Aromatic aldehyde synthase (Hibiscus trionum), 504 residues
Amino acid sequence: MGRIESNVSQNSHFNPLNPEEFRKQAHEMVDFIADYFQNIESYPVLSQVQPGYLRANLPENPPDRPEPFETIMKDVQKHIVPGMTHWLSPNFFAFFPSTVSTAGFLGEMLCTCFNSVGFNWLASPAATELEMTVMDWLAGMLKLPESFTFQGSGGGVIQNTTSEAILVTLIAARDKALTVVGADNVNKLVVYASDQTHSMFAKVCKIAGISVRNIRSIPTTLAGGFSLSPFELRTAVEADVAAGLVPVYLCLNLGTTSTTAVDPIEPLARVAKEHGMWVHVDAAYAGSACICPEFRNHLNGIERVDSLSLSPHKWLLSFLDCSCLWVQNSNALIKALSTNPEYLRNKQSESDSVVDFKDWQIGTGRRFKSLRLWFILRSYGVVNLQAHIRSDVRMAKMFEEFVRSDPRFEIVVPRQFGLVCFRLNPDENYGSDYTEMLNRKLLDWVNSTGRVYMTHTKVGGVYVLRFAVGATLTDERHVVAAWKLIKEGADALCDQLICLNTNY
Ligand SMILES: *Cc1c(COP(=O)(O)O)cnc(C)c1O
């Protein structure tokens, strides 16, 4: 006991931030992290542990006395790492990979270092002004109209996730509509999106007080590439108006989660604007591709929408979480979300000469996340960010060609970005249930090897395998190896089938 007594504060001041101790331990942590990145391929991509594994291995109570850094790090290696699904593995092809970078990491370190709680301009002028700058820079890279920048009537803000970006704009749209139709008529407000829209939309609508009966999920089809049809939208909106309801918000997709389908902004926004709706574009994943001229066409018509969100944590090398939101007119947002308590009052805010980002988001405190984007944009330049997008797309194209070259497989939905939607379909005569079962088996087998992780979706009633290229460490050899593994699984399954069929 006496040995550790010196680490225990009795009446003396306990100082948990000693710069020299920090230097030493942070060095060791950086070494751990660099080793992790270097050796990441040696771990199974999808964690193979069973539920409850960690709870069983950790003590029921926290220690009374301090434990050495080395002891804690040993437990990280022994207990935490095996329970990780390694999102940064180059063999991670599930969901949408979340991209990272050295510059993003360094920016994050600095963000943590300052621990700025920049709710308003005065709480850290640099945090607010850097955020304004990087959001204007990104707007320029996307060739957004000037009205989406702080040069114009709008501007951009960093939210945590797309859900929050949509929630704040929906609340702005709701309040704007209620000033016209009356506060008692919230039950009449109707929102629209395609049936491919991310599940968070319905949840956000609930949180914003939109009646569940008034959330329109408009059907899409495989033949229509799963994008929302302006005709279908018009039909739905006109029926609601005829029934005395009030269209208030349209959420469009630039790259759906299941298949990266893109809704045509221009004609859809025209329909919405005839009815005075707020139009939002959710470009969480694919929006990043629009920094390349060859993908910018997907933003055609963007001048007609009210807001756009894009998550650089998905495809622009930022770490979690970072969801960029731009609005053409910031007044509606601020009107809906501003607060003015005495304890936050200051000359600058009152003179209206500054931006207070607390009025653009749900919470009050906010992290200095723009440092991450600033480091990324400066360290790599637009040219390298474009190269990064293009190289992912090139690898996805390569995988798509592998799939096409094997007659047992098919591409289910044409590829647009870094995601390939395909399935095993060895015999057209198998029923859809049987084909689905085959694909489920193939996916389970591939993921159980720990050598690759991919996921599935179901669209238009079809069970589809998703192969999403984009993890930062992925290069061609990983894609080649993944395809080889998938083929191996298909070989084994098809051999079994032949046995089954001859046994019949
Ligand atoms: C991933 C995704 C979301 C939600 O993810 P965030 O990490 O909150 O941005 C929302 N919409 C789409 C289209 C997505 O792909």
Summary: The chain has three domains: 20-83, 117-368, 389-503. Residues 20-83 form a domain with the dopa decarboxylase, N-terminal domain fold (CATH 1.20.1340.10).
